[in-house]
Amino acid sequence: xxxxxxxxxxxxxxxxxxxxxxxxxxxxxxxxxxxxxxxxxxxxxxxxxxxxxxxxxxxxxxxxxxxxxxxxxxxxxxxxxxxxxxxxxxxxxxxxxxxxxxxxxxxxxxxxxxxxxxxxxxxxxxxxxxxxxxxxxxxxxxxxxxxxxxxxxxxxxxxxxxxxxxxxxxxxxxxxxxxxxxxxxxxxxxxxxxxxxxxxxxxxxxxxxxxxxxxxxxxxxxxxxxxxxxxxxxxxxxxxxxxxxxxxxxxxxxxxxxxxxxxxxxxxxxxxxxxxxxxxxxxxxxxxxxxxxxxxxxxxxxxxxxxxxxxxxxxxxxxxxxxxxxxxxxxxxxxxxxxxxxxxxxxxxxxxxxxxxxxxxxxxxxxxxxxxxxxx
Amino acid sequence: xxxxxxxxxxxxxxxxxxxxxxxxxxxxxxxxxxxxxxxxxxxxxxxxxxxxxxxxxxxxxxxxxxxxxxxxxxxxxxxxxxxxxxxxxxxxxxxxxxxxxxxxxxxxxxxxxxxxxxxxxxxxxxxxxxxxxxxxxxxxxxxxxxxxxxxxxxxxxxxxxxxxxxxxxxxxxxxxxxxxxxxxxxxxxxxxxxxxxxxxxxxxxxxxxxxxxxxxxxxxxxxxxxxxxxxxxxxxxxxxxxxxxxxxxxxxxxxxxxxxxxxxxxxxxxxxxxxxxxxxxxxxxxxxxxxxxxxxxxxxxxxxxxxxxxxxxxxxxxxxxx
Amino acid sequence: xxxxxxxxxxxxxxxxxxxxxxxxxxxxxxxxxxxxxxxxxxxxxxxxxxxxxxxxxxxxxxxxxxxxxxxxxxxxxxxxxxxxxxxxxxxxxxxxxxxxxxxxxxxxxxxxxxxxxxxxxxxxxxxxxxxxxxxxxxxxxxxxxxxxxxxxxxxxxxxxxxxxxxxxxxxxxxxxxxxxxxxxxxxxxxxxxxxxxxxxxxxxxxxxxxxxxxxxxxxxxxxxxxxxxxxxxxxxxxxxxxxxxxxxxxxxxxxxxxxxxxxxxxxxxxxxxxxxxxxxxxxxxxxxxxxxxxxxxxxxxxxxxxxxxxxxxxxxxxxxxxxxxxxxxxxxxxxxxxxxxxxxxxxxxxxxxxxxxxxxxxxxxxxxxxxxxxxxxxxxxxxxxxxxxxxxxxxxxxxxxxxxxxxxxxxxxxxxxxxxxxxxxxxxxxxxxxxxxxxxxxxxxxxxxxxxxxxxxxxxxxxxxxxxxxxxxxxxxxxxxxxxxxxxxxxxxxxxxxxxxxxxxxxxxxxxxxxxxxxxxxxxxxxxx
Lengths: 376, 322, 529
Hints:
- The structure holds three protein chains of three kinds.
- Helix content of chain A is 65%, strand content 4%.
- Chain A is mainly α.
- Chain A has a single domain, classed as Orthogonal Bundle (ABC transporter involved in vitamin B12 uptake, BtuC).
- In chain A, helix 2 (58-70) packs across helix 12 (320-337).
- By secondary structure, chain B is mainly alpha-helical.
- Chains A and B meet through helix 6, helix 11 and helix 13 of A and helix 3, helix 4, helix 10 and helix 13 of B.
């Protein structure tokens, strides 16, 4: 029971009172979605205001973003390419956040996944002429494995030593990137350049353009099979969360840890496993990016996917299916963002969107009532 | 590789962590965890440097840095205190906003040329104390000395003054504070603001004193996150925070210097002969943060002392506290 | 005392008229009038949820009324914060103490005051507080940190806090709920000395005996409305009070059927366990419960009974001793093993332990059997089976909820407790632990819960009942153990309700007298009432 007065009564002066009440009835299902949409619109308006104050033309910027990401079949395909890692990472975050494990380390897990996938080609584990299916399966397994290790480390630290996972996952991001840089600059460097040699075609995920000979419209389209994999992953994550015993445990731990203990659920074990799967999903994003887009191991393969994935998860309200469309929207923002100056704009807009989203959740929990002051 | 030089540089670069950590301690003592330190530091570093470039006055730069960072900290305050939202997510959002904002407004600053920096000085008499004088009182930026003053002042404020007592009450048991007429929301806003100002000061200290310049996100390089980790290690105590900050500062410097000499502990220095191994040295401060967190969390568990009891909990009047 | 306060001559210090306070879905106060005279102890009586605390929170400036007026010394006041009420001389001691554990007694008392202004010279204030505590006989060390104090001492700090602020009107919200009988006597002495010093006291309670023992006049609330407005106590009986409070003539009595009991279900031997602070909470406790038997534990809060419930359900480790359930060793077994055994557990804290607030009714009722057929097979949860299970329980236990996919945070306290009971009883547990099963429920709900527990007993369950309501323990239990500081003071095998001598014996044991020492104590014991 709570009573909050935003404007405490200056009685005669201000005849209305803004009262806040916690919502005691179930909210209809359209409310969360429309609130989120409203939050994004408000965020874009705030972003426009800042852009305008900085002397830019916000509407031109937004129109440019829209054109540069959805304007033609070609750019739409590029948008899907950018959305693919976001779906994986959005799922990774949704899963961990469901248990209130704040995995901020998807960026590092992504890099470790890229490392793991690259190692198959570059060590090499498989000869260059090995068949594609062998390459792809091994690369995916290796990418997930390294991502999972990187994710389970903070999970173990949390379970064993109660170490705050926000900070440990973040620190592991820096460590992962330094670790990968060592291989990029030194071990696998091609002739002193800061990148590995290009991978053999057998290790590439199939792209639409590869089928241009049968479907001419596909020519030049770079959307790759990773997108399908990501959609499948969303189905799997949804099934785990809502139809499996493990998912039930995750949801129970996430909502009330003490109730979970009381229900006999092994919390430490769940923390480690959830972080492991979360890391594996982020690692798979790294594999899909390496094998589907970059085709070599190099630095700067992520324009902050690990962090954007957090916003994606939050905007999707941790719903695995909603992660897909939200990722496509943010893929568009990242794609167009490359051409926008100054370069910080997409990041700033992402931040503002997240701020507005969290703020909008307030209206899910509280009902705002404007009441007339009544004099008895 | 001179141990004195490393320690001296450690004190200098530790000053940055010190300001940020003290700010976060004050904010967390009031019950609000603000993970946006990194973003606020970037805003501070950018605005301090920008003012120094355009107006030529580094002091004015520092003031603007503190105000700007303090103001954006109020986004977090509003979302978590008034709107009762989750402090972790909101802090992350603040990091994004701060980082993005500093990148947008700091566009082109890296090509600014020479800039008036904060003065460097030695403390008369004290600088002549052997070893101690060299490490702590010689040829430091004035910010380092200001940092020394902040340590006892913060400690005294928290433990020996009436506002400090109210601060602790608000963070430990807001309902009790509220029942005695202490304005819980107002104080929490205030200390989040102060925490933001100190993060801004930390940022300004980087860009105008310790490692001058604006290098976009690399300016802070994760020090804001290290500060958040140090708060746990420090167990919300300013004295321990100072020790942690200076040790970390020294470590950061050691990692840089260790690549210099050809010989290390009587062996050929591998970091000299293969500079790429330096990537592993780069990991050390971050790995050490995790180690420090393990130690801090273990110690807190053993001694059964912990975070301020209401840390992370929104306060709603009329809902029963713990 | 009643005679000392002729009503016509008395000076009115508080007058509340037509107070209306609503919360979403409830009218907590519906045009309530209340009048307090100087120098009286005025009881505010009512059931849980009758609106007593709400009314006093309005007076203390914590809530603001929607309608109505408050007058202090015949001047209308509009409090916008607790501070305003404190300035007007009103001090409230909440049921849950408003003390900061990590601060000292003196610091807690100084909290929120204008003096000292900045630097705290604690030594000087320590002395002032020592003097004040001397004056009212409220012994407590000013330098001690609050977390080091006993519950009774903390209450004294609260009283000192109000006196130091110069409060003339003291509101005590259920002050005896946390105290042992001896401490209650001490508190009553203190209250008497306060009114003798000209203070006026409002005493909130739902316990009839205490109200009769201490108050001069009383006001009774029922469902937010006044049923007795400041009536003097002469000639009032418990029965009258009960009728005013509950709205019906009799307090229900159960026909507890005597029936043959079976084998030992729970057997606890020499159990030791530590509490959250790392101190021994249980010190060598041994007892057993047979099938078809309710064994009650009577103790003042914090004497090891909560830890006992956690140890036998596997939520807390025991450092020594053995727990056997149905003959199998259960010492320090994980919680899930107990659940597989069919151990039922009605936890003390419904919202923080017993349920997951944002999950729906279905998810909450399958908490104990999601991993078992027919709901769980292999790695999968069969949501169809879960839904029909939830629907069955809703019908069977009369859980009022529009939909089984409603999040349970939207359920009322009584419905939430029925949901927990439904979940815990649906598997017909051979052994059930019930901790404070009726706390905070209204009379109808209490009756329902108690009937369900007795039904389980008749069906052969062994029940460990832990409650702070002695009436409830006496009504339901076949045997009763009294705990004090983690030890058993005595066992009562012949449990009757309405046995004053028995109640007095239990009271003495609850404060640390062993049963075999009782005959020594009773001769010297003072008879209050």
